[in-house]
Amino acid sequence: MKKTLPLLLLCLFSLQMATAQFYKTVLPTATFSDSLAVIVQDFKRNFTTIQGKQLNSRGEMDVYQSRVSVPGALHSAVYRFHSLEDTTDSWQAIMYEGESYEAAVKVYKQTYKQLKKAKMKWVDKSIISFMSELEMPDESIRFTVTTLRLNIIDLPYRSFFGEIELTNTYDGWEVHLNLHSKKNDASRY
């Protein structure tokens, strides 16, 4: 009996740690959900609250450093477009840059899981989240995007989307997380 008690305690401790590690890999961190909520809520203000210093302008848009990012992002920015039709702006985080397709796919899927499982406290104290199915990447296709919508009925968020892009560049692969308003492509024609 004396030998089995320590063994039993060791097994229970190991089981507890394994369960904790499982949930840690499946659920997003509170930091991810909290950061995401700040960014999503600032969409109503065209990301002006989280906008930092201006970076290089690129033709039809101005680029600003974002003061808020999500864990795991290499860098993030607010994009302001010079458009008369669409005055909304965009927030983007680069989640991966590198040569490995396998690593890019792993980050693409992890970003999707974190975005989909993130629970954000809304201004009315309700909990909101993103909904969608993962678009599976294919190495022979240079671009894959998964589009997610919020489960919210607020008017400014009816055309708000989260997008995760896996893109093949000339230097390798990139994974982007975009939060922005997007009009229906078919509505213009």
Task: Name its key features.
3 helices, 189 residues, alpha+beta
Word description of this protein:
The chain is of the alpha+beta class. Helices cover about 30% and strands about 30% of the residues. It has helices at about 5-25, 30-40, 100-115; strands at about 50-55, 60-65, 75-80, 90-100, 120, 125-130, 130, 145-150, 160-170, 170-180. The strands form 2 sheets. Strands 1-2-3-4-10-9-8-7 form an 8-stranded antiparallel β-sheet, with helices on one face. It has a two-stranded antiparallel ribbon with strand order 5-6. It is globular and about 75 Å long.
Q: Could you report the average pLDDT, rounded to the nearest whole number?
A: 84
| DSSP strand content | 25-35%
Given helix and strand content, the structural type is alpha+beta
- What's the Cα radius of gyration? 20 Å
Provide the succession of SSEs: HHEEEEHEEEEEE
Distance linking N and C termini:
79 Å
Q: How is the largest sheet built, in terms of strand order?
A: 1-2-3-4-10-9-8-7
Low-confidence stretches: 18-26
Question: Roughly what percent helix?
Answer: 25-40%
Largest sheet: 8 strands, antiparallel
Shape: globular
Question: How many β-strands, per DSSP?
Answer: 10
Number of helices in the DSSP assignment: 3
